[in-house]
Design brief:
Elements lengths: L1 H11 L6 E2 L1 H10 L6 H11 L7 E2 H8 L5 H14 L6 E2 L1 H4 L9 H4 L5 H12 L9 E2 H12 L5 H12 L2
Antiparallel strand pairs: 1-2, 3-4
Length: 169
């Protein structure tokens, strides 16, 4: 599904800017026979434009189109979040990762390029919102990350197995 959305996005992106402005978005809607008026298209555009920049990047595009996770998937993601959130304050930080995530085998730690905290921060950046990388991962950001992963996995059974193995749940 990811590849289909990527191809669709590239096709609509007339100027190859890797973002869609409103005119490209509107032309894309009409090209795919979605005949809505300009006002309706503006409302839809604003739903896609998560950061309010006036353009839609691919991340915003895919986040808006991906299907929601089942309750079973959400539950296992919540279990992983709770395992990482050692302080129980609803936010994963570097301090939560100490003793949970072992950096000793990370290549950049091994060769001395990064400190333990830098490895932790890089790890957190994977889950942190792309629009606000503050080193604090909320449950919403964690769920959003796994909603993206979930969209590429067909069955609940496989997704849950993957999560349980990855997080030793």
């Amino acid at each position: 599904m990811f590849h289909v959305f990527h191809r669709l996005f590239r096709h609509i992106d007339d100027n190859n800017s890797r973002t869609l402005d409103f005119n490209e978005f509107l032309r894309g809607l009409h090209h795919y026979s979605l005949m809505i008026n300009k006002e309706e298209a503006k409302e839809l555009f604003q739903i896609f434009d998560k950061d309010g920049s006036g353009t839609i990047d691919f991340d915003e595009f895919i986040v808006t189109l991906r299907p929601p996770m089942s309750n079973a998937r959400k539950e296992v993601v919540l279990q992983a979040f709770q395992k990482l959130d050692k302080t129980g304050d609803g936010v994963i930080t570097i301090d939560d990762l100490r003793g949970v995530y072992n950096v000793k085998y990370h290549p950049k730690y091994l060769n001395g390029d990064w400190t333990e905290d830098q490895v932790f921060r890089h790890f957190l950046d994977n889950f942190d919102s792309p629009y606000d990388k503050d080193g604090k991962v909320t449950i919403e950001e964690f769920m959003n990350y796994y909603a993206g992963v979930s969209a590429s996995i067909d069955t609940d059974v496989y997704f849950i197995l993957m999560m349980k193995n990855a997080w030793k749940l």
